[in-house]
Backbone:
């Protein structure tokens, strides 16, 4: 059984910063986004905003992965709690949010629906200097490159690599 999902309360407009820093620590994150139109400088512009401002969802990579570092992560205010217990988010809710987001259309900054990789997904290097190693997909970096989080010397590090070097890791 996989680890449960938790809700994270972020600093104002700090959702993206929190997401990146939590990914670097090896957590699996999900930040639902919404495409909308806003009036800026007298013109309507399309923008992408968090569906739940100041909140994102987090799942430890396994049951032994501690939640203690979350509260001191850059961009994070703390975990949402009921009393002293962190609030557990039902996995069905996360799946429903992802399905609704996919049905609404592609969101810039998120992987295309046809893409195999979502932030936090486990990937394996099939070629290049890291062939045989596994990491965590961070985000697309242009059309040909991706950022993968790789454990190097005991720390999660961003590695900018060719998109063709990685494949989804076997579950």
Residues:
């Amino acid at each position: 059984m996989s680890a449960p999902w938790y809700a994270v309360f972020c600093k104002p407009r700090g959702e993206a910063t929190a997401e990146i820093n939590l990914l670097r620590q090896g957590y699996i994150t999900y930040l639902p986004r919404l495409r909308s139109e806003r009036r800026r400088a007298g013109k309507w512009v399309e923008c992408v905003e968090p569906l739940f401002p100041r909140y994102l969802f987090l799942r430890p990579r396994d049951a032994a992965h501690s939640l203690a570092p979350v509260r001191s992560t850059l961009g994070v205010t703390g975990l949402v709690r009921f009393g002293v217990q962190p609030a557990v988010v039902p996995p069905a809710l996360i799946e429903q949010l992802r399905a609704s987001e996919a049905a609404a259309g592609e969101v810039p900054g998120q992987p295309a629906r046809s893409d195999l990789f979502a932030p936090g997904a486990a990937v394996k290097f099939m070629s290049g200097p890291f062939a045989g190693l596994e990491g965590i997909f961070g985000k697309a970096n242009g059309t040909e490159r991706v950022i993968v989080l790789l454990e190097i010397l005991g720390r999660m590090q961003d590695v900018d690599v060719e998109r063709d070097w990685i494949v989804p890791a076997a579950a």
Remarks:
- The mean pLDDT is 84.
- The chain has two domains: 5-104, 122-168.
- The longest strand covers residues 33-40.
